[in-house]
Amino acid sequence: MTRKPGSPSRRTLLLGATGTLVGVAACSGGSSHTAPSQSGTARSGRASAASGSVAAFPPTSQAAALPPTTPWRPTSAEVTPAAKLRAVQVVEAIGAWPSGKGGAAAARARVAALRLPTGLVDEAGPLLPDADAAVLQVVNAQYGGILTDSASVLVVCRQWTSRGGRVSAGGTTVDVRLTRAASGWTVTALYPAQPGAAVSALPARARAVLADSRVELPPAAQADLHSGQVHDSVLAAMLRLAGTYRMYVSVVRSGHPLDVFGTSRPSDHPLGRAFDVWQIDGHAVVDPATSRTLIERFMRDAAAAGSYNVGGPVLLSGGGAANQFFSDNTHHDHVHIGFDH
User: Fold this and answer.
1) pLDDT at 118 over 80
2) pTM of the model
3) What phi-psi label fits residue 187: left (phi over 0), alpha (psi between -120 and 50 degrees) or beta?
4) Where are the extended beta strands (E) located within the chain?
């Protein structure tokens, strides 16, 4: 999230290129587990970051069996486990099927079994490729924003598909929107990441990040870097932090809400000026067993790497600028690292 309100010029740039609070709602632009946006035009203010269409990156193919996967389930350490569970369930239901059960009709039946609107299948995009069979592994689910009766859950996943005996690896990140009623949380919309086409001349720092084994990037985040639309300040900070930590990035540019959730303030993520980290040195940020000292040190090192806006589960004092550090329920499960230039 970004604390600083976005200017009209920033939102114009983005769109041209491409209740009661439980905590401050979203990541990047305001104050927002286990491993194995939308089009460039916003949809009614609900769209996720994007500018093009890349379903999975990088694709690989070989004659092999689909790998085993396990369902992702939240723990009691989550702020609102039920919201994350519902978001993950619909992604798992649409993005995985046995041989002969592919296609939209079968996906609608799986979604209907969850008692969710079958029209969500029409918004699945890269989650539902043309394939004989598919398996999906959710890497992580983090908040893009959480309010009393609505939420954005960013479901980061890897997907393997089989077609004609050939297995291809890919994946995406889906911004899952939910609302809460008396009966519980329901899914209202899906916004899969669309990072954009890869550029032919990738910046040197982007190549360095992609080659750094200490920076773990899921498919959509990899594609963000390959698109050439991630700001140099982000890339430099990733490399600097990788000198000290092994970090698992959840979201960079695409698959994140365009605006700070629940507001009209542009997020830094769609501009390529932010990234989120959900795991540090093998320890999940959301896990109560993870050392608070480790998280605090990582947050301070992120600020030292140039971030003007570092959010996480711990509210730190100090900082080189006013409100450089922040904490809220949205960022209970990850560290946000944002840049204003």
Assistant:
1) yes
2) 0.84
3) beta
4) 21-26, 60-62, 133-147, 150-163, 166-181, 184-192, 215-216, 247-251, 274-280, 283-284, 309-312, 325-327, 335-338
